[in-house]
Structures are given as C-alpha cells and as structure tokens.
Amino acid sequence: MKFSALALFISVVSAAPAALQKRTPPNIPTAAAATTMLASLSIRTVDATGYDRDLFPHWITQSGTCNTREVVLKRDGTDVVQGSNCAATSGTWFSPYDNATWTDAADLDIDHMVPLSDAWKSGAGTWTTAKRQSFANDLTNPQLIAVTDNVNQSKGDKSPDVWKPSIASFHCTYARMWVKVKSVWELSVTAAEKSALTTMLGTC
C-alpha cells in the first residue's frame, strides 16, 4: 500500500510540469508598472485614414527558414517539433483567450496584441516601413501570441473597450501586455480604451 501511494504521488508530480506549461510572451510588466505606463500614454481620437495591412510587413524570416509565425509557435507551444522548413509538425498549444488546447498548428493564429490597424491609428501612420515591420514582428515585447484562430478573427482590429478575451481571469494579463506594447512603441490610446484598460488592470 505504501509503495502504491508513493508511486501515485511520483506519477502526479511528474505529470504536473507538462500540464502547467502555459507559455506567455516576454516582458509582461507587473500591474503596478502597467498602471504607471498607462497613465503616461497620450489620448487621441480615431483616424484610420490611409491604413493598409501591407504597410506592416510581417512574418519575416528570423533565422534560416524560420519566419516570425514559426518562431512564436515554437515559443508558445509545448514539445513542438518542426520540419526541415521550420513549420510545426506536432506539439501542444494552450490559448489563454479561450482556455482551449490544440495539437494542430493550423488551428492557431499569431495575434498582434495591439492590432496593426490600431497601431496605425495610434501613431504608426507616421512611421517608416522599416519601423512598422519591426513592430509587426516584435519578439522582444508581448506583442505576439499564439491563440485559437477563430477567436483571433473575432478580435480583429478591436481595442479593449470593444473586445476582451472571454476568459475574465486573463483580463489582467491582457491589459498588462497591451499597455506594455503601447508604451514601448509610444502609441496613443482613446479615452474609452484607457478606461477599459484601467478597469482590466483593476482585476489584477
């Protein structure tokens, strides 16, 4: 009996790390830091004049045959195996927007935390194409995350005052990521967006 209990304990402990491997993008600030960052962001009105997604070259080659999408899939997944062309052939991915788990990379989109259209309206319209490319492929900040494809499509280019992940417990992290990206790239927010982010940070 003692051996069986010990064996069961070891089995559960051994299984725990794999079950808890829910990857997150880098450089997510604390709630306190995000609150300070949010307070410093300038307020703007909406103006999408001249926006075109092609003005933000994305999924560029990062190294060898690996582009940005493939790098994020590798980073955000567990036990990811890539083929000779760097495409993910197997692995497991957890989407924090809807608490869904996937084993086929085709079921995932790489979400731009701050959508490209929103960035354009927030100041990126005055950037060079090179800077917009850097923004669209930003692996240093929490701007890119692998999530369920249709959930990402429902988000589209919406800001937090219009769209939030269905999982309320992720709102704190989502707001911290959004604010970090806006702060690093010196992008503005609308009054409604700032109010929504303040409420979301309050859940932390």
TrEMBL record:
This is GmrSD restriction endonucleases C-terminal domain-containing protein. Residues 103-199 form the GmrSD restriction endonucleases C-terminal domain. Residues 1-15 form the signal peptide. The keyword rRNA-binding does not apply. InterPro entries: GmrSD_C. The keyword Coiled coil does not apply. It comes from Discina gigas. PANTHER family: AMP-DEPENDENT SYNTHETASE_LIGASE DOMAIN-CONTAINING PROTEIN-RELATED, SECRETED PROTEIN. Keywords: Signal. It comes from the Eukaryota.
